[in-house]
Write a structure and sequence with these properties.
This protein is of the alpha+beta class. The chain is built from seven helices and 13 strands. A hairpin with a 2-residue loop joins strand 4 (about 75-80) and strand 5. Residues about 1-20, about 95-110 and about 175-185 have low confidence and may be disordered.
């Protein structure tokens, strides 16, 4: 069973019932209409369990409002551009990957298979391979756990920041057409998993459909954008509860 880490929710295969004709930006605009541009300047996460879990993520921009760095105080991702387009992303370990930049619930970008989308094109049902012990065979066997994701009727608040980083332009180049030449697998996965709306609940189930974890995110909004959130994760095994308070800040022009 995977360890639930809310921090993975805040920093995106099998393609089923997915439109192959629209770009990421076209889908976002179709669902959300005209959304004001507000760029993230920081995300502060305070854990009710342990101060060691607290995080402060900082975003910096150049004079053209292109994202230049994302830093959590330990590691910094640096964005570089050529001719107005994203050219490279590096960190202390070398080149950063889309997986590092676009973290999804329960390692979704690395392992998740989208089974179903909601009416707004958001990934609703995602399944994950797991190994579980079979009492009859006395061996580990491959099974599939699932997560069901619900969304507020608000735009993905990271979209404009991702756009300022050139990531939306990268995703817009993806056309999910299997007749085309192969594209980078992690880019295709990021495209498939990119939500148009803001996630508000995740229900994680085992192979028998039994609920293992429920994560609820209750936001306070200023217009389309969240300013704070209370995040609660509850495990049905032992009833363990984890709680986080998150504050979102934006660039002021």
């Amino acid at each position: 069973m995977k360890n639930i880490n809310y921090l993975l929710l805040i920093s995106s295969i099998s393609i089923i019932n997915f439109s192959c004709d629209k770009s990421t930006s076209e889908e976002f605009d179709e669902v959300n209409g005209n959304v004001d541009t507000r760029l993230m300047s920081s995300i502060s996460v305070v854990s009710a369990q342990s101060a060691e879990e607290n995080r402060n993520i900082l975003f910096t921009y150049n004079t053209d409002n292109r994202l230049t760095t994302i830093s959590d105080g330990v590691e910094t991702n640096i964005f570089s551009y050529e001719n107005g387009s994203l050219a490279n992303v590096t960190n202390g370990s070398g080149n950063a990957t889309i997986e590092e930049l676009y973290q999804s619930p329960y390692d979704a970008l690395e392992y998740g298979i989208v089974e179903e989308y909601d009416d707004n094109g958001n990934p609703f049902l995602i399944k994950f391979p797991e190994y579980a012990y079979n009492d009859t065979t006395q061996e580990d066997e491959l099974v599939y756990y699932t997560s069901e994701i619900s969304y507020d009727n608000k735009p993905n608040p990271y979209y404009k920041t991702a756009e300022a980083a050139g990531l939306i332009e990268v995703l817009d180049r993806v056309r999910l057409n299997f007749a085309m030449a192969p594209q980078a697998e992690e880019i295709v996965k990021a495209k498939v998993l990119f939500p148009n709306n803001n996630p508000s609940q995740i229900i994680y189930k085992d192979e028998n459909g039994e609920i293992l974890y429920t994560i609820n995110m209750a936001y306070t909004y200023d217009g389309d954008y969240p300013t704070s959130a209370t995040v609660t994760s509850v495990s049905t095994e032992g009833g363990t509860t984890y709680s986080y308070n998150t504050t979102f800040s934006y660039v002021t022009n």
